Amino acid sequence: xxxxxxxxxxxxxxxxxxxxxxxxxxxxxxxxxxxxxxxxxxxxxxxxxxxxxxxxxxxxxxxxxxxxxxxxxxxxxxxxxxxxxxxxxxxxxxxxxxxxxxxxxxxxxxxxxxxxxxxxxxxxxxxxxxxxxxxxxxxxxxxxxxxxxxxxxxxxxxxxxxxxxxxxxxxxxxxxxxxxxxxxxxxxxxxxxxxxxxxxxxxxxxxxxxxxxxxxxxxxxxxxxxxxxxxxxxxxxxxxxxxxxxxxxxxxxxxxxxxxxxxxxxxxxxxxxxxxxxxxxxxxxxxxxxxxxxxxxxxxxxxxxxxxxxxxxxxxxxxxxxxxxxxxxxxxxxxxxxxxxxxxxxxxxxxxxxxxxxxxxxxxxxxxxxxx
Length: 372
Fold this sequence. Notes:
2 domains
């Protein structure tokens, strides 16, 4: 009972584990696309290429940690255990059935043989008794006739010839009648004995036919039993081979489970490290975002000042252009042909460098807007 309870508990635990793993697999299959999309979105948000490559490698390592082959092997082992148990139960039931059939055949054969042997012995005993009785009767009749003959002979010696002749005639008649009676009795007994002998022969033939039929049935059952023994031997060999395979599979499963535990421990350590890296990266990203917001505020204030300065310069430039246009009217032909003085060229170079700095400034502002 305790073994059965333990076995039932083990089977229930295995079933619960299989159901849990199946639910986890279904949940993984259902949420795989969503998780992949979330990871893609996170990778697109993170602009650092090196960090994206690191996260992708960690993701691939995490995917390798979830190995579906271990689950399939465990399910296969459970199925093999159930099949082995069913096969053992069928084998034990088959052996019990064969033993029961052999015992039943022996008992029926013995009972039939005993019944027929007792009947034959009874018939033989009756026949011997009847034969002995008839033999004794015949002997008694012969003795009686001999005594009568002896008495008649004795009487003939003492009496007259006529009386002796009469008596001899009577004796002859009695003898004839006794002989006829004896012949009739012999014929009747011979007929009875012949009938009994024929009945015995018929019974023995029927008994032999029945025994031959039963022997044929026994031979058929014996051949079937031999075939079943061969099948049982082959099944036993198969069971031993499957037992060896199961032992090998259990050893492999234990090795794989040990490797899986090690692998899971490594993956958990990597996951913890990845979690730490992710938290540090998140803090760094929040800090960088905060710094970028502060810098953007500073840049906006500086850009407003620069716009004000440029608008003031533009207003002054419009006045200068008006003055230059008015002065241009009074320029001579030589002044129009002559190049710009050195002072103006240097001023243009300085202004172009300043404009390059402003271009870089506006490029940085555009990058910040894109990232936000």
